[in-house]
Write a structure and sequence with these properties.
Shape: globular
Helix content: 25-40%
Number of domains: 3
Structural class: alpha+beta
Strand order of the largest sheet: 11-10-14-13-12-15-16
Largest sheet: 7 strands, mixed
Distance between the termini: 23 Å
Order of helices and strands: HEEEEEEEEEHHHHHHEEEHHEHEEEH
Low-confidence stretches: 1-30
Number of helices: 11
Number of strands: 16
Mean pLDDT: 87
């Protein structure tokens, strides 16, 4: 049942909220520049703050920190390129801000330890544009929160045993909200084709969602000069590769390591009717949390033609941790290692757990199934 959480009128209201934005002037990339971030943390006299950005883009990596003295801190560092970076700030490795932009030169921010999960206020041109974008996206973020609240209530009500109607309804509602978020981003980039704010949020979106037609159309709105930047090239790469793991495509083969450390070509052997390819890693709490449910489904349907293949993105240096996790949770299906996610990230597999259900020919039937959706899929395939 479509649009049970999101009406067409809501979509039109939010789209009508879009207004022209002043474009941030194009900034030349390719030379490193200094930045200084001076700040004050209300409610915290000592500790450590850390400015972080590292989303697997070669040549872009911020990991600068500073101590807090009487609530004050000063972080100094270099940006590898002159354009602004999307980043976030950690406080004592326990609190983190929402995403904001750090630019070259000097900037000041004020933080409140009791209201830390916000977009920090900075008096910079790019920060002003970021604020305007967040105003546009805020109503959709509210819809996303409402969706997850309602989904949790349904999970509790049905004990994770949904009918096909409920599963379809939830998926349609989630897709409607995602479509709306993509439309807002595309409209923003159409108005602001030279905006690094739009470009970075497009990267953030494709890292999360992979290929989506609306996101590709948003990329087409980007000015050619930004497409040639290191961020623009990364976006194009993700869009092209993640399209290869869309429903109806054959799951790609790539090199992984076996439990014994041998390098092999990961591929579907066609011996089982359906295979769940489960991407995870050892420090991923949601990944670990689903192991018991996966073992129940494996034990119930394996003899009927269902299997699971696990692919961990643990770093190769954590080979023993990966081994110990598999042993600790007694995972009975084959496990492989894509060290550091070197292959997975090429296809935009960037959030975990991330899974695919494929048939005996390796054709992707569905992806990103939660346990309720996977349970229903297997029930429909093996119990009818």
């Amino acid at each position: 049942m479509k649009r049970n959480l999101l009406s067409m009128s809501t979509e039109l209201k939010i789209l009508s909220f879009l207004f022209p934005l002043v474009m941030v002037g194009f900034m030349v990339y390719g030379q490193s520049v200094d930045y200084v971030l001076e700040g004050y943390v209300e409610g915290e006299n000592t500790g450590m703050v850390k400015l972080v950005y590292n989303d697997n883009i070669k040549g872009i990596n911020i990991n600068d920190s500073a101590k807090i003295h009487n609530g004050h801190f000063e972080i100094k560092g270099k940006l590898a390129h002159k354009f602004p970076y999307l980043t976030y700030l950690w406080l004592n490795d326990s609190l983190v801000t929402k995403l904001f932009f750090i630019a070259s030169g000097y900037q000041v921010m004020h933080l409140d330890v009791n209201h830390f999960w916000t977009v920090p206020k900075l008096e910079t041109k790019v920060a002003g544009e970021n604020d305007r974008y967040n105003i546009l996206i805020r109503p959709i973020d509210s819809l996303i929160r409402l969706f997850f609240i309602r989904r949790s209530r349904l999970y509790a009500l049905y004990n994770n045993k949904f009918s096909q109607t409920v599963v379809d309804s939830l998926r349609d509602a989630k897709n409607d909200i995602s479509d709306l978020k993509d439309k807002v981003l595309k409209s923003f980039l159409k108005t602001n084709p030279k905006s690094y704010v739009g470009l970075w949020y497009l990267l953030d979106r494709v890292l999360l969602m992979g290929y989506r037609p609306e996101l590709y159309e948003a990329y087409e709105e980007v000015d050619d000069s930004l497409k040639q930047s290191i961020v623009g090239v990364r976006i194009k790469d993700i869009l092209e590769n993640s399209r290869k793991i869309d429903r109806g495509h054959v799951f790609p083969n790539f090199i992984v390591q076996t439990f014994s450390g041998d390098s092999v070509l990961f591929k579907i052997d066609g011996k089982q009717k359906f295979t769940l390819i489960d991407f995870w890693y050892s420090h991923c709490s949601p990944c670990i949390a689903q192991f018991n449910d996966l073992k129940k489904l494996y034990n119930k349907y394996h003899r009927l033609g269902f299997t699971i293949l696990g692919i961990s993105i643990d770093d190769r240096k954590q080979f023993s941790l990966w081994h110990n996790t598999i042993r600790k949770y007694k995972l009975p299906w084959p496990q492989f290692l894509d060290g550091g996610g070197s292959q997975s990230l090429k296809y935009g597999i960037n959030s975990f757990p991330y899974n695919f259900i494929v048939n005996d020919s390796g054709v992707i039937q569905d992806s990103r199934l939660d346990m309720a959706q996977l349970t229903l899929f297997l029930k429909n395939q093996f119990e009818h």
